[in-house]
Design brief:
The chain is an alpha+beta fold. The protein has 2 domains: about 15-165 and about 225-310, BirA Bifunctional Protein, domain 2 (2-Layer Sandwich); about 320-410, Anticodon-binding domain (Rossmann fold, 3-Layer(aba) Sandwich), CATH 3.40.50. Helices cover about 35% and strands about 20% of the residues. It is built from 15 helices and 16 strands. The chain has helices at about 15-35, 45-55, 60-65, 85-90, 135-150, 165-180, 190-200, 210-215, 225-240, 285-290, 305-310, 330-345, 360-370, 380-385, 405-410, and strands at about 35-40, 45, 65-70, 75-80, 100-110, 120-130, 160-165, 245-250, 260-265, 275-280, 295-305, 320-325, 350-355, 375-380, 385-390, 400-405. Helix 12 (about 330-345) runs parallel beside helix 15.
Length: about 425
Amino acid sequence: MNIKSLRGMPDLFPEDLKKWHLLEKTISKVFHSFNTQEIRTPLLESTELFSRSVGNSSDIVNKELYSFLDKNEESISLRPEGSASVIRAIIQKKQEHMQQKLWYQGPMFRYERPQKGRFRQFHQVGVEYLGYEEGIAEYELLSMVLDINKSLGIRKYTIKINHLGDTSSKEDYCKALELYLTPHINELHEKDIVRLNTNPLRVLDSKEKSTLAILEEAPKFQDYLSEKSKSFLEMLVTDFSTRCDIEIDLSLVRGLDYYTGVVFEIISPELGAQNTFLGGGRYDNLSNQLGGKQLHAVGFAIGLERMLELITVKNDIPEIKVALIISVEHNQEKTYKIADDLRQANNKVILDTFLSNGSFKSQMRKANKNNCDFAVIIGNEELESNKFIWKDLSDQGDQQLFDLEALVETYRNL
């Protein structure tokens, strides 16, 4: 029996990772420009962390958590998202009083049906602004998002935003929505009946046609929002409309129970059915829910697999690659000392050593196949004379004979 990877958990090979490296490098540069610092949290957490933060009404907790008992019979889970772990770490470190700009990256896990743009192991990069009240923080995060998209050449997208109001307005609206939907309960999809009984607001997130038809006449959330919240939404749209396609979407609630205040997501028509590649919002009550002190918080997470579908690899800095062709019968260790000298002289150049006893011709073929720009050729004669061949592998390239000092200097100046 062949052992295969688990369903929905793909391997990433070198040819796949070229785009990954470009994406990660570009995003981290943008974070650095905003003076945002990296934080790393464990893959495994107490299951209670996610049931208390993400919410028992969410599909993540009900159906998608990878949970199991450890040897102490304690329930632990692979993290399905990053914000809860970051807030847990801040509380544990007793840093709720601090203002911090943090970012994280890494794999997340959700047990759901794998499909294009959705895997059981997937990767997110996220940002959390902690200790900042609603206002300038949202502006800065949206500016950061636009910088990321611009840096990666992503142009076709729409930012959707909404406001979930303060605690009282949210409670009032949920009561009104529940009162409206209860007489229609037999017409709702079974998933939406569960949502109605646990968190009525999440019914607005339904994709079921029967539920959407009923919601057409439902109370509107904007009727319960304060004028301050409405005004802030409109200001965001006005101020960013010259830079991007941005709109208010009153049905946007996001899938996690901890959101309060402004929520937003970015969709692209180039992604098909799973068209959201970034989502976030404000969650000022999450620290309290997890046993910490009051902590203003707002952030977002990027689904890297989906964002990868929107970018093409562009290498702005051409890489120089040099092949080390070794054709000697003895003293191969000495040739690798030369390789070390070259790498010490210039670690920005790729030195491709083949680590084999292949023929001179086969090594040259491999150098050309690997798109090497130059070759250093070391044979028995070169080792004895301490003079080495430097060969330009371009069509009009020539070759020169250098002693070791001149060879290292040439390599250093590439």
